[in-house]
Design a protein that fits this description.
UDP-N-acetylmuramoyl-L-alanine:D-glutamate ligase; 15% strand; single chain; elongated; seven-stranded parallel beta sheet; Rossmann fold; 2 domains
Length: 502
């Protein structure tokens, strides 16, 4: 699914108004009804609804919701922030409709002393400011936001928490609603997908409002929300006559003294991803461990007892992965540099291999085209430098992918995958239980296994991230997020693929 900036969403609103056609007030009514329906399914008419509305379209939505809730016998009070200017357009129409209905208490807030007291079980609806906000809040709106945040009441944000911007919130952290629920229209805002904004957005839900499909199709976007239907199209259908020789041969370089578990987890995940053959290159001490733990993998044994210092001839391999549990010894660094210079196929690069590259950034020019880098946030900072927030991070991520013709998988709650062509995908699967040791090693193996089977680097990364997250979701349902371990993700990969193919 495409994701759009707030300016683009406003353009899609106008496209819908002119091409459906539908009046602005009727599109507002349609959107408001979606929120009203959500509320009446979850809250009791015994709870008072206290609605704070601004003078713009977000406030217009709030006014319409108040009228609709009153029709369902909710007790509602509306407080309109009054800047001394007359309401115009759809907000003015909805204010008039409330006056004519006569079932909602209407008040105006002109200064701080006008802010009402709240009862403990009141539900607060935030309709102060929408996604068109372009600067941090100050003055009366900031004071009202701070008041709302100091309460213990449930807060529902309409479309976007007031004070939060849709994309870049650099320097904007002081006066933003901390919502329990955010009910957004048609698409999640890009800023909802950043970790630092969870405290403002709370639990977000996308509600459809029927924006014109032709407008959505025509509007170009760099940003995408990765969903099941897109991934299903990427997974190849196997011929009846496939055999291990036609399903790729992966080389995984992993493990060191004390970190052989990373090699085992990554190897198992690679095999579960369907690769025909897997050779895992390990230090000598890991031979018996690998052969016992992963009998399906072939072992390539390094001359060194405890670290990676060499690699086998690369001709047999359709894809190469390097990094899980590797360590960063001097001989390992030399061997990684030689691998970068020798490889003719894309690499999947993770963990210590990334840390070595961060210390030797001139080696980045040696990356084979189409390589896939899978950093966690700390590894990414070491690669590209510090950033103020997640929005700045994804901009650097996109620049990095373009510059080095590679795919970057920046791991996190909504893992972002940047492609060399300038597109960026946020993943929709996964859960907090996957924040556990070894989860990244599993992801490396999944992506490597898919890449070795002939998928493009872009498809292997996107499919791998989605399947990895889906397997984690299946594991969490069975075992809980708290007790989930990386091996559980591997064990549920079969179920994840089965879900994708049904």
């Amino acid at each position: 699914m495409k994701l759009f900036t707030t300016k683009q969403i406003a353009q899609l609103d106008q496209y819908t108004i002119s091409h459906e056609p539908v009046d602005d007030i009727d599109l507002m009514e349609r959107a408001s009804l979606q929120i009203t329906s959500w509320i009446i399914q979850r809250f009791s008419t015994e709870q008072r609804m206290v609605i704070f509305a601004g003078p713009g379209n977000n406030g217009g939505d709030a006014l319409a919701i108040a009228r609709q809730l009153a029709e369902f016998d909710f007790s509602c009070e509306v407080y309109l922030v009054d800047f001394g200017k007359e309401l115009k357009g759809s907000p003015a129409t909805n204010w008039q409709r409330l006056e004519e209905q006569g079932r909602v208490k209407l008040s105006r807030i002109r200064e701080v002393k006008d802010i009402p007291n709240l009862q403990d079980d009141d539900v607060v609806l935030d309709g102060l400011f929408g996604s068109g906000l372009s600067r941090p809040l100050e003055g009366l709106p900031a004071a009202l936001v701070n008041f709302m945040n100091q309460t213990t009441n449930t807060i529902i944000a309409i479309d976007i928490p007031s004070g939060l911007m849709g994309e870049d919130n650099s320097g904007n952290t002081d006066h933003i609603i901390r919502a329990d629920f955010t009910l957004t229209f048609q698409f999640p805002k890009i800023s909802f997908l950043f970790a630092e904004n969870e405290q403002y957005v709370g639990e977000w839900t996308v509600l459809p409002i029927g924006l014109h499909p032709d407008g959505i199709e025509k509007e170009e976007s760099l940003y995408h929300w990765l969903e099941r239907e897109e991934v299903q199209e990427m997974i190849p259908v196997r011929s009846k006559f496939e055999h291990k020789g036609t399903l790729g041969h992966a080389l995984l370089i992993a493990g060191s003294f004390g970190k052989m578990g990373a090699a085992v987890l990554s190897s198992k995940a690679c095999l579960r991803a369907g690769v025909g053959l897997l050779t895992t290159h390990i230090p000598r001490l890991g031979y018996s461990i690998l052969q016992t733990a992963v009998p399906e993998a072939m072992a390539s044994v390094d001359q060194h007892d405890s670290v990676f210092t060499e690699f086998p001839k690369l001709e047999p391999y359709s894809a190469i992965g390097v990094g899980p549990g590797l360590d960063q010894k001097h001989n390992t660094r030399k061997a990684l540099c030689a691998l970068l210079e020798s490889a003719k196929v894309p690499l999947v690069i993770d963990a210590d291999a990334l840390n070595i590259l961060s210390a030797q950034k001139e080696w980045l020019d040696k990356l084979p085209a189409g390589s896939i880098l899978t950093p966690h946030p700390g590894e990414f900072r070491r690669l590209v430098g510090d950033t103020e927030n997640s929005y700045q991070s994804i901009q650097k991520q996109l620049e990095f992918s373009k510059k080095y013709r590679c795919v970057v998988v920046l791991k996190g709650a909504c893992t972002s995958v940047s492609l060399p062509d300038g597109r960026l995908f946020f993943n929709s699967t996964g859960n907090p239980g996957m924040a556990t040791a070894g989860s990244g090693d599993v992801l490396t193996g999944v992506i490597l296994g898919l890449l070795a089977q002939g998928m493009s680097p872009e498809e292997a990364a996107l499919t791998g991230v989605f399947i990895h997250g889906l397997a984690g979701d299946v594991a969490a349902q069975k075992r809980s997020e708290f007790s989930l371990i990386a091996g559980d993700i591997v064990e549920e990969m079969g179920e994840a693929f089965r879900k994708m193919m049904n």
